[in-house]
Structures are given as structure tokens and as C-alpha cells.
Amino acid sequence: MKSSNKIKIDRVVAGPLAFLLNLATRVLGFLLRRDHRFPEAPRVICVAKFTGLGSIIAAIPMLQAIKQRYPKTLLVFISSKNNFQLLERINLIDQRLYVSETSLAGLVTSTLALLYRLWQLRPTLYFDLELYSYYASLIATMSLAINRLGFYRKSTRVKEGLFTHLAFFNTYMPVHQLYSQLARIAGCEVPPGLSTGTSIVLRDQDREEAALVLKTRFQAPGKLLVVNPNASDLCLERRWPGERFVEVLSKLLDQIGNLHVVFSGSPAERPYVDGLHSQLRRYGERVFNLAGELSLGGFMALLERVDCFLTNDSGPMHMALALARPTVALFGPGHPLHYAAHCEPTKTIVLYEPILCSPCLYHSDFTPCSGDNQCMKLIEPASVVKACQNLLVSYANSPEPLSQTWRSPQGDPRVISQDGLLLGRVILRHANF
To answer: Which tens digit of pLDDT belongs to each residue from 141-172?
Structure first.
């Protein structure tokens, strides 16, 4: 299903169900008075993030902290089946449960199977990393976990009956720190400097797939630039204009004689990428379109070998940042502070030209520009060319810290609560079901 259809189903169907379940849990909470103190050794912990490859990667420090605090606990991750290739390569997870989003019927049947499995597991802690989804809140509550931790942003009215612990989700803070905040509520320590890349384990066949592609496509040695001109249908406005990519790549190919360019993308994105690739035919075998031809593991193995990765704000960008690969990232509807604060400053150049309506991605169901993404169009091709040159030439010869249009903040933001934790006030509803 398209993202727009999933949002409609969530609002029209899951929303009213969440309201009714909220009322029921308040009554049950008053009658049962369950003990919501965190146990010393929980048997099962569930973490749920249904959408967003980048969000799953941002949750890795949180997963690391949970594993360090509760090494013998069964850690279960719940997500959409669309994300299984990434989740199967995260070595912190003990068990993975998926729902299918290909059709409404598939969603219903896989949800029922998920709930049955959760009732068998009887989780003690349940972390819901979704912010806006009524569906995710329903699953968290119906898991029957004693402690259910989640986020709120504008109001807690809908969620107070469904969750036992709520933390404020600040869209102007790095998302990996917000996720770690939930782990701190549960008594986990999240030390600074945790590396997400160490928990993503690529397989031998992933590297063999990437090596085979490079061997068969490129006849001469040279520098490798991988380009992701795509963004998910959740917000296509994150795409930098296609003609700008063509302009930048033409200049780079003319200036760097041994440069090879590879377009990446999913099978569904292949037609769009084909349109860009066709405009660079004159460069012959120096430019290839691999959109839809690589598995996710093969793509990440390809990222391991790049000299530079040029990308929009997207899931592949987060993979490159997690693997600490030289990356030029283009931001517009989203803010780099939220999703790129964990980047390696010596290997990452983030280009962002904020305007009055940016960032809109976290605050509106639709973009105010209705597709006319001036925040992306304001990023000049000359700036992107220079950034790629820095990584392809300057950084390769002298890997020193790079000057960036935007830099991530140094250190963690700290707001000391009455409990002495590194987080803001937590909404506790210990009388809840």
C-alpha cells in the first residue's frame, strides 16, 4: 500500500479504535491497579518501529543499551515486512516479528498473527517508537505488556490510557537520542559514542554480490560515486530536482577522468532513475543504473566500497552514515539536526538551505508547498559539486575534518529531571492497565 493509504486507514479505522481502547484501559487500570515498577530481570522486551529504515538505524544505540542492561532478556523487534532485510542484519535482535502492508487483507491477518505471538511471549517491557500512528499504539496496548513506553508531542490525551510511560518527542532534537531517552526511563545507561555500524553485520554473500557487480560493470579502476536521487513516497519533496543531479554528475565526470557513477534505488524507483541515467548516456560505461538490481545487503556492501555517496535525506543515507562512509547528504523538508546528528564529521557534508516552512516533515500531513520544494531547489549544483570533489579528491588525499554547510551539535542536550535522568519530565500513569 502507498503511504497515503496507510495514513488514511490509520486515521479512519485505528483512530476510533484507539479512542475506545483508551476508555477501556482507564477503567481496567482503576480496577486492577497493576504494578508498573520495572523488574530487575525482564523475560521479554519488545521494540516496535513499523516504518522508516532510517528510524530503525537510529534505534540501534537504544538496542545496544537494552542489551547491555539486560543481556539475558529476549529482545524482540516488531516492524513491517518491508524492513526485514535490514533487521535480519542487526545482530542485537533475538527475534523479529513482522506485519505485511502489501494489502488491507494482509495487514489484518498479519496483525492478528502478531498479537497471538505477543500473547504467547507475554512481554514485560514494550517500547513503541512510533509517534503519530494509532495502529502502533493499539498494538502496544493489546500486547498486554505490563510496562508500555511511548512518545507524545502535542497532547497526551489519546495515549495516556494506552501507555504506562510517555516521554515528550522533541522534533528539534536528534532522534537517536530521543529513542535512547526511553531506554533511560527503563533504567538503561546509554553511554556516548556508541557506534551503530558495529551492530550491522553484512554477510559474505552481500559482499560477494557487490564485488561481482563491480567486477562485471567496471573494466578500469577508478573512483566510485554512488548516487541515490530517490526518496520514499511518504515525502517525495525530499528529492532534489533530477535535472540538478544530471548537471552535477556531468561536471564531476568531466572533471574527474577516472570517476565511475552508479545510480541506486529500489525496483519501484527504477523508472525514475532510468530517466536520469538516459541523460548521461554519452559517458558510456562510466555510468550505470543498478536501481532494483541489488538486494539491501548487496547495496550496503557496495556502500562499504564507495569513495563518495551522494544522496537525498532517505533510508540509504542513514545506512551510509551508520557505516561511516563518505557522504554528501541533501536536506530540505527534514532537518539535519533530527536525523543526521550522528554523522561522522570527517566524512560527511550536509547541505541544507532552511526556509520559513522547513522543516515541515514532522509537523504536517502534507507539505505546505504542494510539491514545489524550494528548500531543496535552493541547494545550488555548485555547492554539491564542491562537496563531492572534497570527498572524492581532497579527503582521499588528506582525510582531515571537512567544512560543512551544517554541522551536528557536539555533545548531548541535557535536561535534568527530578529523577536525575538525562531527560525531560516523564508522564507516569501507574494506575493504568
So the answer is: 999 999 999 999 877 777 888 999 999 998 88
Look up cell 582521499; give the residue.
Answer: 396
Q: How far is 49 from 26, CA to CA, in rounded Å? A: 25
> Are 305 and 217 within 8 A, CB to CB?
no
Contact predicate 151/167, CB 8 Å: yes
The confidence score (pLDDT) of residue 416 equals: 34
Query: What is the residue-wise DSSP string for 273-331?
Result: HHHHHGGGGGGGGGEEE-TTTS-HHHHHHHHTT-SEEEEESSHHHHHHHHTT--EEEEE
Half-sphere exposure of 352 (CA within 13 A, CB side): 23
CA-derived radius of gyration, the chain: 22
307: left (phi over 0), alpha (psi -120 to 50) or beta: alpha
Residue 412 has what pLDDT? Answer: 41
The three three-digit cell numbers of residue 90, written as one number: 542487526
Q: What is the DSSP string of 9-35?
A: HIIIIIHHHHHHHHHHHHHHHHHH---
Q: How far is CA 59 from the centre of its chain?
A: 8
Contact in structure between 267 and 293 (CB atoms under 8 Å): no
Q: What is the pLDDT of residues 379-433, one digit of tens each?
A: 999 999 999 999 998 665 555 544 444 433 334 433 333 333 344 455 555 446 6
Which pTM was predicted?
0.86
**Cα–Cα distance, 202 to 211 (Å, whole number):** 13
- The grid cell for 81 is 515486512
Q: Cell 529482545 sits at which residue?
A: 75
